[in-house]
Amino acid sequence: MNAVPEPVFSFRPMNKADVAAIMPLERVLYTFPWTPGNFTDSLNAGYSCWVCEFGSVLVGYAVLMLGAGEAHVLNIAIGQDWQRQGIGRRFLQHLIKVAREYHADMMFLEVRPSNRAARRLYEDIGFNEMATRRGYYPAHDGREDAILMGLVL
Ligand SMILES: CC(C)(COP(=O)(O)OP(=O)(O)OC[C@H]1O[C@@H](n2cnc3c(N)ncnc32)[C@H](O)[C@@H]1OP(=O)(O)O)[C@@H](O)C(=O)NCCC(=O)NCCS
Predict the structure, then answer these.
(1) Contact present, 101 and 138 (Cβ < 8 Å)
(2) 122 is catalytic
(3) Most CB within 10 Å of its CB: which of 6, 38, 40, 66?
(4) This prediction's pTM
(5) Within the chain, where are the H helices?
(6) Kind of pairing, strands 70-78 and 106-111?
(7) For a pocket test of ligand 1, which of 30, 89, 145 has the largest count of ligand atoms closer than 8 A to its C-beta?
């Protein structure tokens, strides 16, 4: 009997061809989405950019900036149909592994106070709230603060 391999979740570096598949997710997931240029600029800048696939389906993506012994998560997202299955947690753990391999001491990220799902994920992983960045994000009624969170690696 021939066993058909089950599709599995895997992480691989993002490339420019992935941006077309990322954009429909990005536009649904964020009120103020990144543009395709933000992703290609990140790739051109040499940031650590990743996608998560289930089989050959792109289900999530992340952009990590590494420099000066620090890691900064600029974007991490899981497609709506794939959320609440532990993929975001595994993706963040993958980014932490990448940052440790780079010998970063700290990982930072910003999150909207209103983004309860992301805040719970980050707190669960061990991130601590470090500061508030006033008016960091665009919002429909002006600007929204960002919470700066940090994790000692
Ligand atoms: C934040 C995000 C990446 C989480 O991805 P995910 O794959 O759904 O997360 P997981 O299934 O790994 O969940 C891990 C933990 O996060 C928390 N969490 C995730 N989604 C949640 C929700 N909707 N409500 C409350 N807690 C939530 C829970 O603590 C969860 O653990 P549990 O399932 O054991 O309760 C996803 O919601 C997303 O892409 N959101 C839109 C983009 C975004 O806001 N990105 C972050 C920008 S700072």
Answers:
(1) no
(2) yes
(3) 66
(4) 0.95
(5) 19-29, 36-44, 87-101, 116-125
(6) parallel
(7) 89
